[in-house]
Amino acid sequence: MPVGCPEPRQLQDLLLGHLGESASVRMERHIERCDRCTGVLANLTAEDSLVEALRARANVVLAPADQNAVRALIPRLHRLHSTATSCRKEPLP
């Protein structure tokens, strides 16, 4: 691996959102200039145990009572989000 290039594991961490903001920005800048890292990144999968678990549960059928509970929660979550964003003085980065 060329000097200055991140390891494939670090590139995968970037894909999965496991890096902090400053590390992500540094790595993104490097990838913009590095064809080799762009190629490595294109061949990586953005999966980890959490993604796999979520995919495994994607086909779960909820009982009618649970479906109703979820439907009732969605508008409440939207209201919470609206309230939170209206209280913010500065936009999130």
Characterise the protein shown here:
With 93 residues, the chain is mostly helical. It has a domain at 8-42. The chain is 68% helix and 0% strand. The longest helix has 24 residues, at 64-87. The model has no long low-confidence stretch (mean pLDDT 83).
Main pleated-sheet profile: none
Strand content: under 5%
First-last Cα distance: 32 Å
Structural category: mainly alpha
Number of discrete helical segments: 5
**Quantity of strands, as a count:** 0
Could you estimate the helical fraction of the residues in percent?
A: 55-70%
**Radius of gyration from the CA trace?**
20 Å
Stretches with pLDDT under 50, minimum 5 residues: none
Using the alpha-carbon principal axes, give the shape: elongated
Overall mean pLDDT: 83
Succession of helices and strands:
HHHHH
Offer a few descriptive terms.
single chain, 5 helices, elongated
Write the layout of secondary structure elements.
Blueprint: H1 8-16, H2 21-33, H3 35-42, H4 49-57, H5 64-87
Helix pairs in contact: 2-3
Summary, kept brief:
With 93 residues, this protein is an all-alpha fold. It contains five helices and no strands.
